[in-house]
Known about the structure:
Blueprint: H1 2-21, H2 27-37, H3 50-78, H4 83-97, H5 100-118, H6 123-160
Helix pairs in contact: 1-2, 1-6, 2-3, 2-6, 3-6, 4-5, 4-6, 5-6
Amino acid sequence: MEVFLVIGGILLILIGFIGSALPVLPGPPLAWLGYLLLRWTDYIKDNDGYNTSLWIMLFLVIVVTLLDYLVPVWGTKKWGGSRRGMWGATIGLIIGLFLGPIGIVIGPFAGAFIGELTSGKQQQEALRSGWGSFVGFLMGVGLKLMVCGTILFLFIYYLVR
């Protein structure tokens, strides 16, 4: 049974990493659930700090999940973007996933730019707004990846110590 819990935890954490870049999957919450699965194995002792780290990570997951909604809006507003620019960045990311690593980087920017153009903005203004959407999106993804990376580190730490 322990092997299944560990494998399930690893799979959830890996899906959490993928979900950090894909807007349709809740990355950090899935990774945290994977970390939680380790609780029911013999790798965890009672007074080894795991419970404390579990609660701290839950707090960080909640904060990052909330910030994930606020940071792109902040980036878009800061650079004069619109809701279409944010949607364009999201759609650009999804299309970019099929184009490899470069597509993942270029997709959100191109999508935000096109989204801003379709809202009636001039090219220069759309570039600026697209950049704001892109920066906000990348900041959100970066925060989620940091939390998932920390969860992966802690999972491995408690698994191999």
